[in-house]
Amino acid sequence: MLNLISFQSSALGALGQLALLGALAFTLAGTWLAVVGGLRADSRVTEATRRAVWAVFALVSLGTLTLMAALLGDDFSVRYVAEHSMRASPTWMKVTSLWGALSGSILLWTWLLSAYAFVLSLTLRRDALRPWALGTMFVSLLFFVGVCATIASPFTPVSTLLADGRGPNPALQNHWMMAVHPVLLYLGFVGLSVPFAYAVAALVTGRLSDHWVVVTRRWTLVAWTFLTAAIVAGGWWSYETLGWGGYWAWDPVENASFIPWLLTTAFLHSIQIQEKRGLMRSWNVWLIVLAYSSTVLGTFLNRSGIVQSVHAFAGGPVGPVFLGFLAFLLIVGIGLAAWRAPFLRDEAEVPAPISREGAFLAGNWLFLVFAFMVLLGTLFPTFVEAAQGRRDASVGPAFYNAFAIPLGLGLLLLMGVGPLLPWRRANGQSLMRALVPLLASGLGAALVAFIFGVRAPAVLITVALAAYNLVGLGLLTARAARQSGGLGRTLQAQPRRYGAYTAHVGLVVLALGLAFSGAYRQDAQATLNLKAAPRTLLREQLALTGLRQEDLGFGTSAIASVSIDGRPFEARLNTYTQAPGALFPAPAVRYGLLGDTYLVVTSIDPKGQWASVRLIESPLVSWIWWGTLIICIGAGLTLVSPARPQMRAASAGLAPATD
Predict the structure, then answer these.
(1) CA dihedral of residues 190, 192, 197, 202 (deg, nearest 10)
(2) Mapping DSSP to helix (H, G, I), strand (E, B) and coil, where does residue 337 land?
């Protein structure tokens, strides 16, 4: 690697490479210091470990800023810039090129990991877990910094200087969401390194009390929120960019982001049981090990080339290395958990099946089965290729929907009744008291939906469970407000609880959007002639009112102006310099509370006389985006500290808020 450092060939490239090599040196030193500090319980060595984290963060930041400067400055002496950027690209596209290809995306991951480690070093308590948590972060850093500084370095110089770069992937130039979705996804993936580090520290030291779970709840919740927003933002990107009118296709790389979300969601629910009842200690260790390992699995799938996906990077040398790191994480995590298994016993007795703990545990099993089935479907074509040597096997949406729909409905069912059940055990009377208003509201909502024409069984059940959940959350909130003297006091005293309730409301809204847009989506195509009479399509009147070309500087855009029931729409077909023969649709979408009108132009007459269009009507799609926003707001509320002790005492003096 040293022979690739040449200030004469590429000053910025040499500076960035030296920064990464320096970060690698400090990472090695920090790993050694963390182990020594942990074994000797030496606070001075641990303090040196913290300072090593700061050095790594500073050097990786320097490397990242250097690559950004090279991109913005069109320095085509840096290979990454020459291959993935070009002079004609707008500024925002040059910025997003940082994570638009393999080595740049790994550098972004590494920088975010060093940033999480830096923040962790500033907030860690001075206890026995401190050096080992930092050491675990250093192990992850050692892998990612090592990959960036060696086999996936973005700073290698080019042999022949180009006048202009090759430009970014055309598919990544088609929408501004490229600036949002990948960053959110990496923030979620990388954020899970912190609870994983705490879990490893607890296992190594044998300090297996509930402390590590309490400390990491906020870290996990932040990572989960980013991951939630990232998955839905990716769906919105697909909806706005690919021109197919959908948002989720069970693509292997989409699945790779969904699996950690499922496992992390299970972990967030089960740590509540450990905090409240001292149960599920071993379970939680296994969950966080699997959740963090699954982020590396997703990265491996994305960068190894073993799966076919519109989102995946081309295969390269990093695939086997990521597979090795995944194996290392699983071996270490599983080995430590097995070693400490005798000390991870639960304090309380096994909960009754009909209890709040029982509902949480059942939900966890559904999340685990869900994650396993998604993983199975994702890897099945790879298994077939390994066994039979052919790559034509595929798993379509029908396979995933066959289990995703019933499992999703089962989770909605448990989500509604779980918080209403008492801890430890619920007798038949309390169970019926909790269920009767929920079931009555659900049946009533399903009947109303049926009267208004809903016939799809899965949608009717979703409507019923939505009402069932909303009534349950309303009853809990009203009861607590009545006991504590007002809703305001209740929210101030217990923001964590009511933030969770808000997130559940958002999930209900999202579920309704998924159900209706999936079952009642309509799709039709037609060719429209310029200045011809309007055509009826899906009960809408469509007329082609104009065709024109627009020069983008880095490509061209063919624009079809269409009137739909008198409302103007402009749908585009874009072509880019790097792929002049490929067409990239940019649909025109009119969002509505009850449904979207989605217009795609599929082809345009070169002589400007006609255009073929596709019209899609999708009910309640926007509820997916609004539901996600509500989920994120609720997650943010759970991070708010409760009201001051005197305010809580005043509230408690009226009556405790129980549920």
Answers:
(1) 180
(2) helix
Q: Residue 267: which residues within 8 A CB-CB, separation 6 or more?
A: 195, 220, 284, 287, 288, 291
Residue 345 DSSP SS3: coil
3-state SS, residue 138 = helix
Please, what's the b/e burial string for 150-178 (b: 16 or more CB within 10 A of its CB; e: otherwise)? eebbbbbbbeeeeeebebbbbbbbbbebb
pLDDT in the model for residue 651: 42
Give me the residue label for tokens 């693509």. Answer: 251
Query: What's the whole-number mean pLDDT along residues 186-192?
Result: 96
Report how far residue 44's alpha carbon sits from residue 28's, in angstroms, rounded to the nearest whole number: 18
The C-alpha atoms of residue 18 and residue 64 are separated, in whole angstroms, by 12
Q: Give the mean model confidence (pLDDT) for residues 582-605.
A: 92
Angle at 488 between CA 483 and CA 492, to 5 degrees: 95
Least trusted range by pLDDT, from 22-31, 234-243, 453-462: 234-243
All structural domains of the chain with their residue ranges: 1-168, 523-619
Q: Residue range 80-104: average pLDDT?
A: 89
Confidence category of residue 485, pLDDT binned at 50, 70, 90: low
Is residue 588 a contact partner of residue 542, using CB atoms and an 8 Å limit? no
Edge-first strand order for the sheet with 588-590 is 522-529, 610-619, 595-604, 588-590
Count of other CB atoms within 10 angstroms of residue 3:
5
Q: Average per-residue pLDDT in the chain? A: 87
